[in-house]
Specification:
The chain is an alpha+beta fold and 304 residues long. Helix content is 35%, strand content 19%.
Length: 304
C-alpha cells in the first residue's frame, strides 16, 4: 500500500496522525490539535477537487453538520480550504467503532440494547429533520457506537438534502437516487425528492438488522435488490432467521416502519423508535429454538 503523503503533515493547525478510512469522496484521518485534542479530519479526494458537484456536496455536508446540534450527532469543529486547494472538514473524534462491524459480530443483539441504539439514532435524525434536513444515507456504516457506554453518534451528511431546496439547486438529478441500496427507501429509487419518512424506513432496516443479524431483503445482486424493493414486501421479522421469535407487537412495529408507502409508516422517526422501545420492553434476548435453555424453558412452560 502506498504511503499517504498527508500523514504526518499539518493541515490548518491539525496534525494528521493516521489515515483511518476512505470513502468515495473523502479520506478520513485521525488528527490532533493543541486546543481541540483528538479529532477526525475529512479531506476531499484529489481526483474530485475540480468536480463542482463533489465540492458542493462536501461544503454542504459541513454546513449541515454545523446546523444540526445534538449529543448524538458528531460535532463539526471547522471547515475550509487550504492554501494548496485541499477541502477539509474537521469533526469531533467519536469513541467506539462503526456500528456495522459491531452488528456483524454480535447481532442479534439483546432487546434493551437495540432499543437504546435505535432511540439515540432517532433522536439524532429527528434533530436533523427539525432543522429541515433529510439524511438520505442512514446505515450502520454511518454510525459510531461505543459498546461500553452504548452511546451512538451519527456521521456523514455527505448526501443529505434540505427539505426546502429549490429544484434548480438540487445536486441529484431527477430519475437518479442516492444512498445505499440495502437501506434506501423504495420511494427514493425514482430519484424524486424524499421526505423524512425515508429516514424512518432506513432506521427500521437498521432495527431489523440489529434484532435478527440479517436484512429484510435477500437479493444476491443490486439489480435483484432494486426489483425486490420496488415490487416485493420485506421478509417478516419472525421469518428472518429460523427459530428466531418476536412478539407480534415488535414485528408489527418494525414492519410498519418498512412500509413501501411513506404514508403507512409512523408519523415521524421518534414515534417509530418509541413504539419499538415499548414493544421491546417486555422482551429479553431474542429466543432461538434448538438450544438447551430453549428446551428447558419449553419444559417448564408445559408444566404450568
Amino acid at each position: 500500500m502506498a504511503r499517504d503523503l498527508l500523514v504526518g503533515t499539518t493541515l490548518a493547525g491539525f496534525t494528521l496522525i493516521d489515515r483511518v478510512g476512505e470513502g468515495g469522496t473523502a479520506t478520513v484521518y485521525r488528527a490532533d490539535h493543541p486546543l481541540h485534542g483528538a479529532v477526525a479530519v475529512k479531506v476531499l479526494r484529489e481526483k474530485l477537487r475540480q468536480d463542482k458537484t463533489a465540492v458542493a456536496r462536501f461544503v454542504r455536508e459541513a454546513g449541515f453538520g454545523t446546523r444540526v446540534q445534538h449529543t448524538n450527532v458528531v460535532r463539526t469543529i471547522e471547515t475550509g480550504q487550504s492554501a494548496d486547494g485541499l477541502h477539509y472538514l474537521v469533526i469531533e473524534w467519536a469513541p467506539g467503532e462503526i456500528l456495522e462491524g459491531y452488528a456483524k459480530r454480535n447481532a442479534p443483539l439483546p432487546s434493551d440494547e437495540v432499543s437504546t441504539i435505535v432511540l439515540q439514532i432517532a433522536d439524532a435524525v429527528h434533530a436533523a429533520h427539525a432543522s429541515g434536513i433529510v439524511h438520505r444515507d442512514l446505515k450502520p456504516e454511518n454510525l459510531m457506537y461505543d459498546p461500553a457506554t452504548r452511546n451512538v453518534k451519527l456521521l456523514d451528511f455527505g448526501i443529505a438534502t434540505a427539505t426546502d431546496v429549490a429544484p434548480d439547486d438540487r445536486l441529484t438529478r431527477a430519475g437518479f437516487f442516492v444512498g445505499t441500496l440495502m437501506y434506501v427507501a423504495p420511494e427514493a429509487l425514482s430519484g424524486e425528492v424524499v421526505t423524512p419518512a425515508a429516514d424512518q424506513y432506513s432506521l427500521a432496516t437498521i432495527a431489523y438488522l440489529l434484532l435478527t443479524g440479517v436484512l429484510p431483503y435477500t437479493a444476491k445482486s443490486p439489480r435483484e435488490m432494486f426489483t425486490q424493493l420496488l415490487s416485493q414486501p420485506p421478509t417478516n421479522l419472525t421469518k428472518a432467521k429460523p427459530g428466531l421469535h418476536f412478539p407480534t407487537s415488535v414485528e408489527a412495529t418494525v414492519m410498519r416502519g418498512l412500509s413501501k408507502n411513506p404514508k403507512d409508516r409512523f408519523p415521524d422517526v421518534l414515534v417509530f423508535a418509541r413504539s419499538l422501545g415499548d414493544a421491546l420492553a417486555e422482551v429479553g434476548h431474542p429466543e432461538v429454538d434448538g438450544g438447551f435453555m430453549s428446551k428447558m424453558k419449553g419444559l417448564f412452560r408445559s408444566k404450568q
